[in-house]
Amino acid sequence: MDMWLLRLKKGLGLALVWTVLTLVLGEMGLRVFDWADRRFLIGARIHSTMQGRWLDPATREYVSRSHKTLIYRNTPNYRTSQIHINSLGFRGDEFTPRKPERVWRIVALGDSCTFGWGLPDGDTYPARLADRLARECKKEVSVINAGVPGYSSWQTARWLQTELFGYDPDIVTVYVGWNDLFEARPGSGGDVEGRKRRAYLLRKSRLLAEIRTAFVWYRSRIEGTYHPDFYEDYRPAFFETQLTKILSEAKKRGVRVVLCSLPTAYQKGDERADPYIERDRRRFEILYERYNAVLRRMAERHEAEWLDLAGPMNGRKELFLDFCHPSARGNEVISGLLTRTLMGMERGVSPE
């Protein structure tokens, strides 16, 4: 009996040691991968390789091509009946990288909403903004459409730092966040925040976060929806970090920034919603509120100009092609709001 107990204790001891060792190595491995993924976007590169890039349905040609640091960029000199990418890889007319004297240059930074996916060149809000400012501003104005379909906050921040500041912009408008929101998942290295102990553990442990994510994902497959509190403690920490980079670097260079909220056609109580939202309305509502809250908080913290597009646009389905991409009418509204904001900044007066 004593020998059996001794062997049992020894076996339990070894099992405990191996369990602890596995947990430690798992935690370390996931943290290293998390760092590498955020530094080199391993996951995004795999996704890009497997899924291909943005394919124009009219010509079956790629609107974007691979890029060594940004994963992909708009294809220079790409043309269709509706889309014109210039020689530098920006949608719209050619411009000189070196800003001419007495030119007021604005860089419109963003994703497919800024690019104007699904619309001809003249219906994008950067194009309409340029037309409005040309009529209303006494200065010569240059508006650069720095929108790329599928771009995340990381790509926009990286692009701004490595290239766009080199075009000497006076103002950068930032309308980005949907692709970060699409890929949001809790428990990824500090993306949760809460007062409960479990939230604290999830914030500290990458392994526990991944276990919880896997568990709830399988549960959601069985039940057809996410667990109600899955995203309750979610905080877009990575998104906030990228916005901080944009705003801090712009301040150092004396470039003014306009941060825009994310407008949507969706409103609570809609009988029918986009499939992305319909899959779990509560998840979308939580994430949507959190991402817009971060945008507003960053504008206040860094003393950037805040433009609330959501206020006058939310729920107005005629202003959208789907639940997030503005229609031609929507871009007209955005260009009008931006014009008012930019003209107010130029006069030194904050718009009401």
Describe the protein.
The chain has 352 residues and is α/β, with parallel strands linked by helices. It has two domains: 1-40; 55-184 and 236-347, SGNH hydrolase (Rossmann fold, 3-Layer(aba) Sandwich), CATH 3.40.50. Helices cover 49% and strands 12% of the residues. The protein has 13 helices and nine strands. The protein has helices at 2-40, 42-51, 112-115, 125-136, 153-162, 178-182, 197-204, 206-223, 237-253, 275-278, 281-301, 310-313, 328-347; strands at 55-56, 61-62, 64-67, 71-74, 103-110, 140-147, 171-175, 256-260, 305-307. Strands 6-5-7-8-9 form a five-stranded parallel β-sheet, sandwiched between helices. Strand 1 and strand 2 (61-62) form a beta hairpin. It is elongated and about 95 Å long. It starts with a helix and ends in a 5-residue tail after the last helix. 34% of the residues are buried.
Distinctive features:
2 domains; elongated; five-stranded parallel beta sheet; 352 residues
* Strand arrangement across the biggest beta sheet: 6-5-7-8-9
Strand content: 5-15%
CATH topology value of the largest domain: Rossmann fold
Q: What shape does the CA trace take?
A: elongated
CATH architecture of the largest domain: 3-Layer(aba) Sandwich
Compute the CA-based radius of gyration. Answer: 23 Å
